[in-house]
Automatic annotation (TrEMBL):
Annotated SUPFAM superfamilies: Kelch motif
Protein's organism: Zingiber officinale
Xref: Pfam families: Kelch_1 (PF01344)
The name this protein goes by in its record: Kelch repeat-containing protein
InterPro entries: Kelch-typ_b-propeller, Kelch_1, Kelch_repeat-containing
Amino acid sequence: MARSNKSGRYVLVLSCVALLGVALVADFLWAYSNSASSSLVWSGNLDRSLERLSGAGDLVAESVVKKKKDLKILESKELNATFADLPATMLEWEEMAEAPVPRLDGAAIQIKNLLFVFAGYGTIDYVHSHVDIYNFTDNTWGGRFDMPKEMAHSHLGMVTDGRYIYIVTGQYGPQCRGPTTRNFVLDTEKKEWHDLPPLPVPRYAPATQLWRGRLHVMGGSKEDRHEPGLEHWSLAVKDGKALQKEWQSEIPMPRGGPHRACIVANDQLIVIGGQEGDFMAKPGSPIFKCVRRSEVVYSDVYMLDNEMKWKELPPMPKPDSHIEFAWVNVNNSIIIVGGTTEKHPITKKMVLVGEVFRFNLDKLRMERRNGRCWEGCLSASRPPWLATGMAGFISHLASETKDQMILLPRRSLGACGELNCIYNFSLILLQSRSLFSVSFGITRLVQSNATTSAASKLLGLMIARGGDPDPITCNAIMHGYFLESPRG
């Protein structure tokens, strides 16, 4: 009888070990399926990160048996720069009026002091079919109106010429339904909708921009929401009307996929970030229920040059997606706010990007060789409610008058972690005649142990523009000279 009980205990222990082994294998395969593609680019960092964790196998085993609250500790462990905010001082964020409804994967376009916000998921089973308008001047929402019934409800391509908003394709319906070919244009002054010629094939979250009199649509995902599209089309448009009946094929993109920023700067078409792959509809599901598939988020930056050839530019500091409406061009710099990056390799959860990046178009021309064009000039952890779409606020501060940049400078200079960032942002402030804030920038340069040549140059430019440096600024530079002078 005792031997029988002992054998039973052995069987029970072996069964538990076998179940744990199955769980470990399943967890490994799941993690591999979600990160295999991205590891082709980031394999070195990811592998070393996992090695740094005390016993990768033990850690994965613990993640299987620990409770949900223990996973929070696991999530906080550093893996690499992709899964953590870049070092920076926290900016002071001002919370604006709450939106009338929650939205996910909607679209937003700013025209003067108004922000038009379209469609989006309310929940996974419900999508919005209206437009809300935010007024930057008085910090209020109002003027809601309906979208056409045939218009897509999320993952739209969208751009404006300052009056007309061009809306291209997108996903029609909730869950993970496929994209449509229907396109529309909105006259924002008359609140009137008009049709545009349909795309040759449906697309999901394509990059969209107006360039040289033509509406360009490129990339995105194909009908299954997952396979990246490389196709690129254009349509001649003017004053909200199509000048052609059919779309014209253009040079394909070097890399396809949805959720990219698409910008015209200095008469060049630039495409930034994005991803390959996305959730798909479960096969046979009558409601097109979303199921997870592997995604690769990337940091690539491409420019279409005068010869109509794609040229690769220096990449972003980290992979970034869902930024199609999270950018603005201010003072010849492209500002990218937030976004999403690669899923966490252990927890499989989406990771939000916590920085505000600046792509200096002047430095692109001057420093193309060394590739240091992306900077964390405004890098700072964002408040927890911010992921994308706040670039319009930064744009508004600079669009009224240049003097309104006084509202941001001291915070932004305080957030600069690199000397180049402080110096270049101070130059922008000089151009906008925010001279008082330039003094603060000079002081920050000296405090950051910069050589006094940079601070002195800023001081000279400031005086030449009629600025009167305060005593603190002068003392800071004199203190810097004293520290740099030879001893003895």
